[in-house]
Amino acid sequence: MHILVATKQADLRVAIELYLTQEPGLDIVGTVSDAANLRALLQAAEPDLIVLDWDLPGHPPAGLVTEAKRLASAPHVIVIGVDFDVKPKALAAGADAFVLNGSLPQHLLAAVRQAQSRRAQATGDVITKGMGE
């Protein structure tokens, strides 16, 4: 699964990248810190999944989710937010999942694995089981 990580926090981008690349079948195809760079990379990277910081600067987050969902690759979108008030807004915008910023990394991994499973069902692909499964 090809993943694009978009968050303004450099330490969070690095942590997500390091954590997810340790998992079989997950590949980070790009990391960005703002909406302009995300929009530029969306077409080129053709991600299967976007991990999107709801507070990403430069463009309204709901618009970014909508734009991402219109791509030919039809990526899943996991929104990371600083509080649970963001969750209904993110899901209403079309996000597939919400993870609270600062929650255990396993919560993000669970959301990624769920997206991977849904994508495999939609495309008929076989998933290689990850660590601990």
Give an account of the 3D structure.
By secondary structure, the protein is an alpha/beta fold. The chain is built from five helices and five strands. The chain has helices spanning 10-21, 35-45, 61-69, 86-93, 105-123, and strands spanning 2-6, 27-32, 49-53, 76-81, 97-100. The chain has a five-stranded parallel β-sheet, sandwiched between helices. Helix 3 (61-69) runs parallel beside helix 4 (86-93).
Which helices and strands appear, and what pairs or packs with what?
Blueprint (H helix, E strand, L loop, with lengths): L1 E5 L3 H12 L5 E6 L2 H11 L3 E5 L7 H9 L6 E6 L4 H8 L3 E4 L4 H19 L10
Parallel strand pairs: 1-2, 1-3, 3-4, 4-5
Helix pairs in contact: 3-4
Features of the shown structure:
133 residues, alpha/beta
